[in-house]
Amino acid sequence: MKTPPPSELVAEWPLPPLASLGSTVRAIGIQRELRRHLPWKMRGFLRVDGNQAVLHLPIEEKEAFSAASAKIATAIEEISAYPVLPSEVEDILGISSRERHKWMKQSRLKSAGTRTVKMRGRAKAVTFHVFDAQHIEDILDRDLPTIWRQEDAAMSAENRKRAAAKRRQTRTQARSQSGCAGSADDASGSKLEGWDVFAAEGLLRAPRK
User: Fold this and answer.
1) Residue 1, pLDDT score
2) Annotated region Disordered: where (predicted)?
3) What mean pLDDT is predicted for residues 11-20?
4) pLDDT at residue 151 tops 50
5) Are 38 and 72 in contact (CB under 8 A)?
6) Phi and psi of 198, rounded to 5°?
7) Is the CB of residue 117 less than 8 Å from the CB of residue 111?
8) Pairing relation of β-strands 52-58 and 8-14?
9) pLDDT the model gives residue 111
10) Are 13 and 53 in contact (CB under 8 A)?
11) What DSSP designation does 208 have?
């Protein structure tokens, strides 16, 4: 029994280890970047499936298939140099947007530069930080987000402790100042009116003999 001729042309390329970093979000981004190298009508025939890119075209598109395959093969060689986008970083490391901003400010998470794009439906372009794939891989391998969260929790606890101690000190000083003011008022209030004149007249002195 003869094997029926193939109905489509298929090419597959393994992705480099630094490609998706286990992130579905980044895999979608890589697929989008690879498709940009193809004519618009052919972009839907390329997909990223797991750790490989797959191109499939109808058998009649042999010439277009050869040209597209060459472009994709060249593009895949550059995948490891693709910057990691903010949404991809959050998915790869399992962190929140708030943590990403905080750790960037603390220079734990290092920016590899910025990118500016014009978004559909927005009048102004959007500028955001991007990250080096090797830097993100190192953070992932060392599980640094877990360590950073522990350090942040310890720092927050210490800050709360210091703030509570400062509030206690402030209340103690306020009570002390209030007590001193009360003693002064008592001393002045206990002095009889005209006492100085009364004493000056010598009325308290013993009568002379």
Assistant:
1) 45
2) 158-190
3) 89
4) yes
5) yes
6) -60, -45
7) no
8) antiparallel
9) 96
10) yes
11) P
